[in-house]
Amino acid sequence: MTLADAKYQYLLRMGDNALILGHRLSEWCGHGPILEQDIAITNIALDQVGQARSLLQYAAQLEGKGRTEDNLAYKRDVMEYRNVLLVEQPNENFAYTIVRQFLFDAFNFLLHKSLVNSKDEHLKAIAEKSLKEITYHLRYSSEWMIRLGDGTAESHQKIQTALDDLFIYTGELLTPDAVDQTIFEAGIGPDLTALQAPYQAKIDEILQQATLQKPEVKYMQSGGKDGRMHTEYLGYILAELQFVQRAYPNMEW
Amino acid sequence: MSEKKNWPLWEIFIRSKNGLNHKHVGSLHAADAEMAIENARDVYTRRMEGISIWVVESEHITASSPNQSESLFDPANDKVYRHPTFYNLPDEVKHM
């Protein structure tokens, strides 16, 4: 694998994670449990769509085939998407949304903390801007994990169920493949194996405060970031996300 | 966390920049003080309105009663001498 190929894939993965999770969160707009949380979740959605723009713009530039960030977002089909399986999981209820966010934020925070030292100046600049936003996202989702876990019997049970269901999607976050390895060796991104311990430490710290049990998972799901497979949900997300551009190609507002 | 069905109401104060006072900007619901600050950040500082947030649970604010406004505020009506408007200011003094 050439470094140029690896960089393009790496940017797609990061951009797709931000885009798909941002889209998922945007589905809460107008449906939040209370007004204040409706605004909070929508703010995070906007942060992530903004990050997706910067990342996919850079990916398109690296690819060098004249595509734009909009082409990448609106004209790739399911099997060309490179987001991790975790971010495409449905909102279900507030507990699932918070657990999904927390499990992703804890990873995304560690990733961006490393990327601010990237040898790639462009990625470094994106990471510096995003890190401030992600630091807040992690604070927000951590606080909610604690409140729901250590809240009422019902909130505890709901968030434990969500955690039990979603934990199998955390494996691929920090399992390096050829792309991650090439990026690490070029000094552009972190050694993912070195982030595994801090990731688990953060999870343990918050789960302990939240009085939640870490699920014992024997088999982790994977396949999202390397494009082997996605869950059935991504197709529905793209159907909604891409509808206007598919129905009216190249239309503008 | 409280057993009450509704979260308590919090009054939000924002300082827009250093040197200025915190100003009351509105109120919102939150389960506790930390969450009130997060909610205030998301509701009231999305457009760079502030650099500092204070939150106070509304029930801790003691307010004057509208019924008492006559006795509290009307007596100041005819005390013009309390305004510093009877001095001749030299032209050299600006911004007064």
Automatic annotation (TrEMBL), chain A:
Matching entries from Gene3D superfamilies are given as: 1.20.1260.10
- Tell me which PANTHER family the record gives: 1,2-PHENYLACETYL-COA EPOXIDASE, SUBUNIT C, PHENYLACETIC ACID DEGRADATION PROTEIN PAA
Write down the species: Phaeodactylibacter xiamenensis
Tell me the Gene Ontology biological-process terms attached to this UniProt entry. Answer: phenylacetate catabolic process
Give the matching Pfam families.
Answer: PaaA_PaaC (PF05138)
Q: Which named protein is this? A: Phenylacetic acid degradation protein
Name the source's superkingdom: Bacteria
Q: Which GO terms describe its cellular component?
A: cytosol
Entry-linked InterPro entries: Aromatic_CoA_ox/epox, Ferritin-like, Ferritin-like_SF, PaaA_PaaC, PaaC
UniProtKB/TrEMBL annotation, chain B:
Matching entries from NCBIfam families are given as: PA_CoA_Oxy2
Q: What is this protein called?
A: Phenylacetate-CoA oxygenase
Q: Supply the source organism for this entry.
A: Phaeodactylibacter xiamenensis
Q: Corresponding gene?
A: paaB
